[in-house]
């Protein structure tokens, strides 16, 4: 009769500290304490399931009672080590707190603790899931836990330390175990399969490791299941069928048809997924994971490994979408997953999430050739919209650093200064016409720009000219947050070919942080296409900053809106005949 096969989770349970995976911070602390003989009387290990709490407790029990002495490296061959590994050591008492919650059980255990160990150096009590003990049981163990006999060591383990009284926590040396990182689980599973002489491809290993969600015990249990499911072989198709995992091909196809704004094909893919009875909750989770990989491919291409499945398609999609679109789709995916339980059914919730992505794609997204309108603005024949497609994307710089960077510099030099001068002349022309036409502009409609008319004497390159152009330039700079706020409150004080001096009002001098100044200088250099030095000062401004200009425009629009309402015949009739009052604060101009 053949001996029964031992499950992988027990067969590959670590027997010493060096075999532990992913808990280096705990191993280091315990190893140093054992080497220096600084032994505590109570230890508490916390963390989620299957990450090594009970395993570390048993290794620590061997370290206390190994016949070679107290050591961080138990020999594993003495009777104490062998019996502890076999679960039959008389002086190692393992207690399941979930099954022994009553105070009577705890009192019995503490009474036995007073007696000296039978054969070992220390009597070790391992209490698993200690948070399940009753309040009375915790109170009964407080005194013994604080001052136990010299020959007693307590090792507590729990998945929920918040339920343990503070009085117990303060008496223990606490170690928080981490979830095991995904790469370490993959590496350990690969090692186990090599020792078991079982072949497995990289994609299957990643699927199994991801399904474990940070638990090594879960990973080994799922691996056991996969071996049985595949009749001794592990293949990607069988693993996906076993886990109910969504084929990445479906998700990549969805993003490709999303880029083409093809709603019919998108629903056809969703129908195919429903036909295979795939979990739409898992599909949205994997879709969010895929979008995260696309974002990494754009910003940090090196983070996508060479062995990444569908690596070429990931990078192609990363070039297709703009970074802000990917961020938006990611938010839609995770919110769609949260709303899945409230949807009429999973299919409706999943397809509604896809349609929401489709609805939020910019109207100018497609311009032919699979590129976005924003990216095509630098290379196509049609003019780009202001502030979009002006410079190469991060992905382009990382993938094609030589050719793309040269092209980006050439376009920036030409377009930045030319657009600055054009916008400045246009703005000055509009200001001059406003002065001459007065209120007639509102009745006659907007006057078309006339580049030939230039009533102002300023020349391109003068301080006055750049001051007017600065309001337009700020809208094109690639800055955000406090750096953009600094740019908006800056007023041009002087301007030369290689230096710009700004003045910031006293109220906003807190924005003059060195970091924000450097970011603004880099953005201006990129826009102008040449080195430029910035100087900042704090003082009285003349109201020519972009923020002040925007505020004046808002006030003017608000005044016009109020005047329009007040002059409306129906409103005037209400005020005169019914003593109505106009609530000015409720009037908002039409954007």
From TrEMBL:
Single GO MF annotation: DNA binding
Biased composition (Polar residues): 394-405
Alphabetized CDD domains for the sequence: AAA (cd00009), HLD_clamp_pol_III_gamma_tau (cd18137)
Enzyme Commission code(s) on record: 2.7.7.7
Biased composition (Basic and acidic residues): 406-442, 450-461
InterPro entries on file: AAA+_ATPase, ClpA/B, DNA_pol3_clamp-load_cplx_C, DNA_pol_III_gamma-3, DNA_pol_III_sug/sutau_N, DNA_pol_III_tau_dom-5, DNA_Rep/Repair_Clamp_Loader, HLD_clamp_pol_III_gamma_tau
Presence of keyword ATP-binding: yes
Compositionally biased intervals (Low complexity): 378-393
Family statement drawn from the similarity comment of this UniProt entry: Belongs to the DnaX/STICHEL family.
Name by which UniProt lists this protein: DNA polymerase III subunit gamma/tau
Lineage: Bacteria, Pseudomonadati, Pseudomonadota, Betaproteobacteria, Nitrosomonadales
Gene: dnaX
